[in-house]
User: Which sequence fits this backbone?
């Protein structure tokens, strides 16, 4: 192998692929990155029997070849190289990188012991990269990080015709985001359960305006049986965009029945400016003691946001709010509340921007984020509350993002 390419392109490709390397590989060769040089292209890949990633970059290939080298070491080296052209040359037992006056020689790992990269599943449809990344960022924080409950560490992707519904929960909050896409076959249905951490990495390979191809191992055409997903050891899903490909095994279990968790009615409802509320909660949460709450009290056309650390500090901020209902006080975990507000603000701002493009708002000069509103609906300090984002006052369109949050019991004012 003898390859020449720009340092920036090499470093970016290696860094993205190296993020998918396992923290504790079961075999030493799984810590390696596979470099394959073909005319005009250098492909960098990794695979640990669960997740595979590959990226193709343009390169001048004088001699094709294949080499397996320590992945994280290669990432550190390419990140530190000067901004010059890089030459990669393969010897009998090592791989040499030369960049200006710098030269590194890496002992290659045994190529014959490396597993064969998985084939991509068949294409299921495409979606805009920016929209997919935004949707993923809104739900993945709600997935559990407790590996003793594998089903909750995933994001359930309900694919039904032209709509994808992403769902994640850790038992204390539940995030649901609906996303339009273009399926290969109208009426296709499946429900892959994707590891949340891998799905978050898939969002990193996307770009607004660039289509992402989603590939699944099983789909059901119109008129088929109830929606399902492959649950065997070979069940995978793939994402492909801009020369990057990512596959992951699905979690082999059924997801929880989440739809019934949303209450039909709420006794209290508040509507507040989304950006202003999120900023206030973020400031007040700075003094919240670990395990304590941020308290919201409604009345007189405002919401008072309070938090504190006993004997050290307290914070209080007031934001305008339209409120109706009997129960006027509720409290939440600061980080859980901020996660929901940030995701709802993203959804509301996106909806507002879409309306502005269609000429709906009375004042199109108002920035989308400033016009966006948060709607908080709840019944009591002990029952789940619903957070949604809206384009502005009077927007009654069904929200494409919903965040159900279990509150902490409101603290008594001190």
Assistant:
């Amino acid at each position: 192998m003898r390859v020449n390419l720009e340092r920036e392109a090499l470093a970016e490709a290696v860094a993205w692929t190296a993020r998918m390397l396992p923290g504790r590989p079961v075999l030493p060769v799984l810590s390696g990155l596979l470099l394959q040089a073909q005319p005009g292209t250098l492909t960098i890949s990794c695979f640990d029997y669960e997740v595979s990633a590959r990226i193709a970059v343009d390169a001048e290939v004088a001699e094709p070849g294949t080499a397996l080298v320590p992945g994280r070491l290669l990432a550190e080296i390419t990140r530190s190289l000067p901004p010059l052209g890089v030459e990669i040359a393969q010897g009998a037992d090592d791989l040499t990188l030369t960049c200006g006056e710098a030269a590194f020689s890496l002992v290659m790992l045994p190529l014959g012991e490396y597993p064969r990269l998985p084939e991509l599943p068949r294409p299921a449809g495409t979606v805009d990269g920016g929209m997919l990344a935004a949707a993923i960022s809104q739900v993945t924080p709600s997935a559990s990080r407790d590996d003793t409950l594998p089903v909750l560490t995933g994001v359930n992707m309900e694919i039904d015709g032209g709509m994808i519904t992403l769902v994640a929960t850790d038992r204390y909050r539940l995030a649901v985001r609906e996303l339009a896409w273009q399926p290969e076959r109208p009426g296709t249905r499946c429900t892959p359960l994707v590891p949340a951490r891998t799905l978050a990495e898939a969002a990193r390979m996307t770009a607004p305006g660039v289509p992402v191809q989603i590939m699944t191992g099983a789909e059901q055409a119109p008129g088929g049986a109830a929606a399902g997903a492959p649950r065997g050891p070979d069940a995978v899903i793939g994402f492909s965009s801009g020369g990057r490909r990512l596959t992951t095994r699905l979690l082999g279990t059924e997801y929880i029945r989440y739809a019934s968790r949303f209450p039909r009615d709420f006794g209290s409802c508040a509507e507040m400016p989304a950006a202003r509320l999120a900023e206030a909660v973020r400031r007040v949460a700075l003094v919240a003691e670990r395990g304590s709450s941020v308290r919201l009290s409604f009345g007189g056309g405002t919401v008072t946001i309070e938090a504190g650390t006993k004997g050290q500090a307290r914070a209080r901020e007031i934001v305008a709010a339209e409120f109706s209902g009997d129960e006027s006080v509720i409290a939440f975990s600061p980080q859980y509340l901020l996660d929901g507000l940030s995701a709802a603000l993203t959804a509301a701002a996106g909806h507002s921007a879409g309306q502005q493009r269609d000429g709906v708002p009375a004042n199109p000069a108002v920035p989308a984020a400033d016009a966006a509103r948060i709607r908080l609906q709840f019944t009591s300090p002990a029952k789940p509350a619903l957070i949604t984002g809206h384009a502005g006052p009077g927007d009654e369109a069904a929200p494409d993002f919903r965040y159900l949050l279990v509150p902490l019991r409101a603290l008594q004012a001190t």
The chain is about 20% helix and 40% strand. Residues 382 and 409 are 6 Å apart (CA to CA). The longest strand covers residues 51-58. The helical segments are 7-18, 71-80, 129-139, 196-204, 274-284, 334-358, 368-371.
